[in-house]
């Protein structure tokens, strides 16, 4: 089989006596939508932080596209194509939606355009307009980012991440706090994105996870129990016992 796009190998992260990541290993294949699930406190966010470069593991390795990224800082990982979509903090609230995206496009190519008046950077503007369309915010272009509804802010965050041209996009709970309509819009956006880029998703909404994911990795107490297809995960005795028993009963 081809080398996976991301290979996490025996990763360990301790907080005092707690092993938040306990020798975790899993792989994300190129082109798949891979979901990371597990109960509260299982270590999903800690694992995503180590993959994005926000946290340094105590042991283990992270390989991306055949390259060992374990010691590389976040900007170098972003340049390699490993990009995390951030929550609200990365959005400039007072800037328009279009300007947020244009700045993100310009930030991808430092030196090339920052010296130029932003209004004259038509290539960045055109790319930002295309991103607006992709994330479904074309009608919000001129609006201040801070005035967007919660779900639209999350769409904008995905747009900001896409500006970096990811080969693997990490999404931490993209559906968190959304109502049914906002959720449906984000799920539709993820369905579009999966055709263009590989996705690694942490998500508590099991209905969405089981509809979207090609493969699922289940984490319990920092340990990977299994990585497999949704069908196999549904039937896995240890996963059912540790986490999914009640959640899956409710699914269609
Ligand atoms: N900076 C930290 N210092 C100490 N303990 C931490 C730190 N970050 C996380 N933890 C602990 O590590 C464990 C894993 O936390 P983490 O947030 O990664 O879990 P999670 O699976 O993302 O949880 P949730 O689904 O609730 O978001 C938890 O017990 C948490 O309390």
UniProtKB/TrEMBL annotation:
Domain spans labelled ABC transporter: 6-246
Pfam hit, one: ABC_tran
Superkingdom, natural source: Bacteria
InterPro entries: AAA+_ATPase, ABC_AA/LPS_Transport, ABC_transporter-like_ATP-bd, BCA_ABC_TP_C, P-loop_NTPase
PROSITE patterns in alphabetical order: ABC_TRANSPORTER_2
Keyword ATP-binding: yes
Record's signal peptide: none
Keywords: ATP-binding, Cell membrane, Membrane, Nucleotide-binding, Transport
Molecular function per GO: ATP binding
SMART domains listed in its UniProt record: AAA (SM00382)
Database matches in PANTHER family: ABC TRANSPORTER ATP-BINDING PROTEIN (PTHR45772:SF2), CONSERVED COMPONENT OF ABC TRANSPORTER FOR NATURAL AMINO ACIDS-RELATED (PTHR45772)
Name of protein: ABC transporter ATP-binding protein
């Amino acid at each position: 089989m081809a080398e996976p796009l991301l290979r996490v190998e025996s990763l360990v992260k301790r907080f005092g006596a707690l092993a938040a990541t306990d020798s975790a290993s899993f792989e994300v294949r190129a082109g798949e939508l891979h979901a990371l699930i597990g109960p509260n406190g299982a270590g999903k966010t800690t694992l995503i932080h180590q993959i994005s470069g926000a946290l340094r593991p105590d042991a283990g390795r992270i390989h991306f596209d055949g390259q060992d990224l374990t010691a590389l800082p976040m900007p170098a990982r972003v340049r390699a194509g490993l990009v995390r979509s951030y929550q609200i903090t990365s959005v400039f609230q007072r800037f328009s939606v279009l300007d947020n995206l244009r700045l993100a496009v310009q930030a991808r190519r430092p030196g090339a355009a920052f010296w130029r008046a932003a209004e004259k950077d038509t290539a960045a503007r055109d790319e930002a307009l295309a991103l607006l369309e992709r994330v479904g915010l074309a009608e919000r272009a001129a609006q201040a980012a801070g005035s967007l509804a919660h779900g639209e802010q999350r769409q904008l965050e995905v747009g900001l991440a896409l500006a970096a041209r990811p080969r693997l996009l990490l999404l931490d709970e993209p559906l968190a706090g959304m109502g049914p309509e906002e959720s449906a819009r984000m799920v539709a956006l993820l369905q579009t994105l999966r055709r263009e880029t590989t996705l690694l998703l942490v998500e508590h909404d099991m209905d969405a996870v089981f509809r979207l994911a090609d493969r699922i990795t289940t984490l319990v107490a920092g340990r990977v129990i299994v990585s497999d297809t949704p069908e196999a995960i549904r039937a896995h005795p240890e996963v059912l016992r540790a986490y999914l028993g009640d959640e899956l009963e409710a699914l269609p």
